[in-house]
Amino acid sequence: MAINDWPEDQRPRERLIRFGAAALSDAELLAVFLRTGVTGKSAVDLGREMINSFGSLSKLFNATITEFSAIHGLGHAKYAQLQAVLELARRSIHEELQINAALSSPQAVKHYLQLLIGNKTHESFAVLFLDTKNRLITSEELFRGTLNHASVYPREVVKTALQHNAAAIILAHNHPSGSCEPSDADVRLTQTLKQALALVDVRVLDHFIIANPDVYSFAEHGLL
After folding, report:
1. What gap in Å lies between CA 205 and CA 116, rounded to an integer?
2. Is residue 1 pLDDT above 80, yes or no?
3. Which positions ≥6 away from 62 have C-beta within 8 Å?
């Protein structure tokens, strides 16, 4: 049965308008994005197939155009639309962090980092560079590596912080393997970077490990 034939109070778009986006399931949100299904499948069915095929929203969002288009009913146009939506979300949060102090919006920082590096299949090390009021100047992915390892060079972090005239930074890297618990190497690296940056009066406010949907904060766990 097509969604237009469903009772109005069960249709995803109408439910979103009435109750807000948070009230919808992942499949229903994808259905609103898709607008239409394919022969024999409603948009909700197709959304559910997308999630089941990739295993999670994170993997879906990080799919290549070839992987995405392998599902019947999807193609280059939908792939482009989805990537545009994700980039708009990143830019929206980026703007918020430029206006408001990062420490006053910890959830915004986490969401931004999840969108920035959380969906990558390789390990990525990113840095948020902040001004004297802890507002975002810019963010950069400074190092990238394999599934389980990215080499990080403190000298490059210090040099880039000075180039941006940053007063403070927030460190972040992802764990594509799925666990956001820090390793001993993560803890040692954080302390090394903190000490190196202190020599040039740049504060390390936090270090986040992203393993979507989970986020680990060094500051919240007393590791800074």
Report:
1. 18
2. no
3. 119, 120, 121
CA distance 104 to 114: 18
Predicted confidence band at 47 (pLDDT cuts at 50, 70, 90)?
A: very high
- Identity of the amino acid at 213: P
Alpha carbon 100 to its chain's center: 19
Give residue-wise pLDDT tens across range 158-179: 999 999 999 999 999 998 877 8
Distances in whole angstroms, Cα of residue 108 to Cα of each of 77, 90, 98, 100:
29, 10, 11, 10
Per-residue pLDDT tens for 131-161?
999 999 999 999 887 545 568 899 999 999 9
Pairing relationship of beta strands 168-174 and 203-211 according to DSSP bridges: parallel
Q: What DSSP string describes 123-142?
A: -EEEEEEE-TTS-EEEEEEE
Residue 24 · residue 15 · CB < 8 Å: yes
Other Cβ atoms within 10 Å of 206 Cβ, number: 22
Strands 168-174 and 124-130: antiparallel
For the record, the structure tokens of 4 come out as 């237009």
List alpha helices for the chain, DSSP H: 12-19, 26-34, 43-54, 57-61, 65-69, 76-99, 106-117, 154-163, 184-198
Does residue 161 sit in helix, strand or coil? helix
